[in-house]
Structures are given as structure tokens and as C-alpha cells.
């Protein structure tokens, strides 16, 4: 049902997809152009070297958890990479698998590439029926439970995929976004890994769709 699309990540970290309508910037690339004052302040405070170390650790944990979940949903064998981050990622994976994915009754696609004309493109982790509602589902990782203010971009990303899915396949009833966020264990404070589940209902999704399209319009105006 879902087509494959090639993507390319440039040296500056920006990613483009080769869609049938032509090359399109990725959703994450567009989101990266938005101001992130708190992130910038943190980088300034800890310094370039420490910021890189922390970011790489977070990326490695996220990739390990994500790849484990992808293999699980596809009923494939996951090959442990052997890096130290695997141990933490495995604990987070177990929570997302046993609790987060327990409400998935139908899987429509895994690692699905989606695009909206040549305006943007991206890849969502899972599309299926979640708690009886067709949904866009994405996996995330975090050190702590995130406040709403810190998951704004995640919601915009989910709305972008929802719009693209409707553009490609018509209205198949996707009304909901689901974020399954594995949070890290902290042995120093005896805190176990946890799952933060964020449901984006239809009315909220509509608001984020409108906001996302405004962002896309501004992005292409700046690029012109």
C-alpha cells in the first residue's frame, strides 16, 4: 500500500526526499528552522563539546529503541549493536512494547514515507488502529516526562504526516496522533524507565494541521 521514497541527508544535516512531485524538504528539516531559544541557551551554557556528547547519546538511545520496536512490529530479529546505550534503550523498548503498543489492533504500515506534493515529506514510525481509532503513531525518547511546551514540534510533525497521508490516499479516517515516549531510567535516584503516552485528539489535530501549513508556507517563502 505504501510506496518507498529515497531520502538524502546533506552534510549540514538537512534531509530531502525524492517524491513523485520532485524533491521535498523533510518535516524535521522544516521544524529545525523554527526558533529554539531554550535549546540554544542550553548549548551556550554547557559548551559545544558537552552538547555534542549529550545529543549523540540521546540519538544513539533513540535509534536503538526505535530499531527494536520496528523489528518487533515486523516480527523480525533485532541484532544488538553492542553499544552501551543498548541497555537503557532495551528497558524503554519493553515499556513501549508492552504498554504503548498494547492498544494497537491493526498495523497498516511501518516506517511509512509520506509526502505532500513537493512541499514536504517525511517518515512516520507506525500507521494503524490505536484504541479503535486510525492513527499516526510515533516513538520518541526523553530523559524525563515532557511538558506540553516541549512536545509542540512532535505534535506538528504528527499533523504533517496526517495531512500528507490524506493527500496521498484520501480520507481513510485518520483522526488521531499518538506519541509513545520512552523515558530513561535513572539508577542514581532509583527511578525506573517509564512510558509517557500523548494522545492528540481530532480537534487538537486540526489546530496543529493549520499551524503546520502556516510554517510550511513561511519556509518556502524564505527559500524562494
Unreliable sequence segments: none
Strand order of the largest sheet: 4-5-6-7-8
* Class per helix and strand makeup: alpha+beta
Number of beta-strand segments: 8
SSE run:
EEEHHHHEEEHEEH
Describe the largest sheet: 5 strands, mixed
What is the average of the pLDDT values?
Answer: 94
| Spatial shape | globular
**What is the distance, rounded to the nearest whole angstrom, between the alpha carbons of the first and last residues?**
34 Å
**Helix fraction bin:** 40-55%
Radius of gyration: 18 Å
Mind explaining what this structure looks like?
The protein is an alpha+beta fold. It has a single domain (22-223), classed as Lambda Exonuclease, Chain A (Alpha-Beta Complex), CATH 3.90.320.10. Helix content is 43%, strand content 27%. It is built from six helices and eight strands. The strands form two sheets. It has a five-stranded mixed sheet with strand order 4-5-6-7-8, with helices on both faces. It has a three-stranded antiparallel sheet with strand order 1-2-3. The longest helix has 27 residues, at 48-74. The protein is globular. The mean pLDDT is 94.
List strands and helices in order, with pairings.
Layout (H helix, E strand, L loop, with lengths): L6 E3 L5 E5 L2 E4 L1 H6 L4 H10 L1 H27 L10 H14 L5 E13 L3 E11 L2 E10 L9 H18 L6 E8 L10 E7 L1 H22 L1
Parallel strand pairs: 6-7
Antiparallel strand pairs: 1-2, 2-3, 4-5, 5-6, 7-8
Helix pairs in contact: 2-3, 3-4, 5-6
